[in-house]
Amino acid sequence: MLTQRYSSLEDDTDFIHNFYERRVIEEIYKQSERVKDGDRNFLADVACVALNRLPPRYIRHDVDMTFFTSPQEMIEIEEKITKAVEYALEYVMKRSESINETKP
Q1: Torsions phi, psi of 16, nearest 5?
Q2: Taking the model in full, what pTM does it have?
């Protein structure tokens, strides 16, 4: 019986995710050699900046987005992701350069 199913908060929230997360990380890998070389801290910083520039789109399954979104909207979403990642890469690189310049 469904109502007698045992679950935990982790189980019930684990399948919900922001549609942009995976797409942003994929785009960062496309654009950044530093990330491809394994700099996970840089990846996390860039991903956070990029994701904060995009509206959250919580879904259960990625196919839900493609089913309920027109082809034109998907193109616009991909463009927004590309621009957000470009901005985030530049922003994080400039911030890390300025921090490194102030270190003795």
Answers
A1: -95, 130
A2: 0.80
